[in-house]
């Protein structure tokens, strides 16, 4: 078993040196640690491109000291690691919590490589280069460490001058250990964060696997080949046929919606027409009653006409100013309706004693000799008038 020095704990992590007074030489050296990003116009750099080259002593801080905002001459360096496959909001929230743990924090994010991930956890959807780039473009990240170790070692912590490690508090059993962060917790360098419920990489993959047919059909419709989707020939034809059926259903649905809209428009127009017709009819009837009703300006009142016309007209009760005009028009109407009287003397006619075989009836004048005296003429006229009354 290797012998530990006084400056190291049982886990190999350096002990706190905050109680030891620094030498005069150390005080003269200023901290040149990278500062947190102030602008977001560029992605976060990689650690091997901008590693901390500060030569000043990096005193170990406690959580209480870090929350007070000390030291003032350098930021508190917080480390968070993970796989970050299918980077989602749960990852972003965890990094946000790690970034805001202390007033002045510099967040380093370690991303494990494909080899380590496939060995200890399983196959990933995104390769390591894609996962690195996803982290670089997160606003809370100040620096990305590629090919991060699966278990943190004292050398790694010292190399990157890490003050605290942020992760959720659930024990993470892997690589033959019940909790890979156990030694970090014992050293007082662990700061817990909260997991986001309802979202994780495993949940997203489960959704895709559960609805595999839907996504396969979707991608086939968008131009992907069956070979790219690893779909058999039979399944490809089945998916394409289902896509055609869905298109037909969508067309039928659109036609139904349009027909319903058309029927609704026709009903609305018919209601409007009926309502307008009712209004116009009420208006017409009202105007007619105002003009020809009992109390109207042109209302008729009952008046007696000659018996020969057999017409009864009910007259109107008109106002005195229009009485004279009404009487004149009434007299004209009576003259027009009353038949003219027959003349005193009219030519004598009699019915023909015989009818022609044709359906047309003709009245022939009497071929008797003309009357020899005035008395005979008057007698013939009276007989003719009686014949006319009989015909009526």
Write the layout of secondary structure elements.
Layout: H1 24-28, H2 63-67, E1 76-82, H3 89-99, E2 105-111, H4 114-120, H5 128-136, E3 143-146, H6 154-159, E4 164-168, H7 182-186, E5 190-193, H8 201-210, H9 212-221, H10 226-229, H11 233-292, E6 300-303, E7 313-315, H12 323-337, H13 374-391
Parallel strand pairs: 1-2, 1-4, 2-3, 4-5
Antiparallel strand pairs: 6-7
Helix pairs in contact: 9-11
Describe the structure.
With about 400 residues, the chain is α/β, with parallel strands linked by helices. The strands form two sheets. It has a five-stranded parallel β-sheet with strand order 3-2-1-4-5. The N terminus is likely disordered. The chain is elongated and about 135 Å long. Helix 9 packs across helix 11. It starts with about 25 loop residues before the first helix and ends with a helix. Strand 4, helix 7 and strand 5 form a beta-alpha-beta unit. The protein has 13 helices and seven strands.
């Amino acid at each position: 078993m290797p012998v530990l020095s006084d400056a190291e704990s049982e886990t190999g992590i350096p002990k706190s040196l905050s109680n030891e007074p620094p030498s005069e030489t150390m005080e003269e050296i200023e901290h040149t640690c990278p500062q947190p990003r102030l602008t977001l116009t560029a992605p976060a750099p990689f650690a091997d491109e901008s590693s901390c080259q500060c030569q000043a002593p990096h005193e170990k801080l406690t959580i209480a000291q870090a929350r007070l905002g000390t030291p003032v001459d350098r930021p508190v360096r917080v480390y968070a690691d993970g796989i970050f496959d299918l980077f989602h909001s749960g990852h972003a929230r965890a990094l946000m919590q790690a970034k805001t743990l202390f007033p002045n924090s510099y967040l380093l994010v370690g991303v494990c490589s494909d080899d380590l991930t496939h060995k200890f956890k399983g196959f990933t959807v995104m390769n390591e280069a894609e996962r690195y780039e996803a982290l670089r473009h997160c606003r809370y990240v100040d620096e990305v460490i590629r090919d991060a170790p699966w278990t943190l070692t004292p050398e790694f912590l010292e190399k990157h001058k890490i003050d605290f490690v942020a992760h959720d508090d659930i024990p993470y059993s892997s690589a033959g250990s019940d909790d890979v962060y156990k030694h970090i917790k014992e050293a007082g360098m662990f700061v817990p964060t909260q997991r986001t419920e309802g979202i994780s990489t495993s949940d997203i993959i489960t959704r895709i696997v559960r609805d595999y047919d839907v996504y396969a059909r979707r991608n086939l419709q968008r131009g992907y080949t069956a070979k790219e989707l690893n779909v058999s020939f039979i399944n490809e034809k089945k998916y394409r046929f289902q896509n055609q059926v869905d298109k037909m259903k969508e067309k039928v649905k659109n036609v139904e919606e349009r027909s319903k809209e058309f029927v609704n428009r026709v009903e609305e127009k018919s209601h409007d027409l009926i309502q307008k017709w009712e209004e116009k009819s009420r208006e017409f009837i009202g105007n007619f009653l105002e003009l020809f009703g009992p109390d109207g300006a042109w209302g008729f009142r009952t008046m007696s006409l000659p018996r020969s016309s057999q017409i009864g007209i009910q007259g109107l009760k008109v106002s005195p100013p229009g009485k004279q005009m009404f009487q004149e028009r009434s007299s004209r109407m009576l003259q027009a309706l009353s038949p003219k009287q027959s003349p005193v003397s009219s030519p004598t006619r009699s019915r023909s004693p015989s009818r022609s075989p044709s359906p047309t009836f003709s009245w022939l004048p009497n071929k008797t000799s003309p009357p020899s005296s005035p008395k005979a003429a008057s007698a013939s006229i009276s007989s003719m008038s009686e014949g006319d009354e009989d015909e009526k």
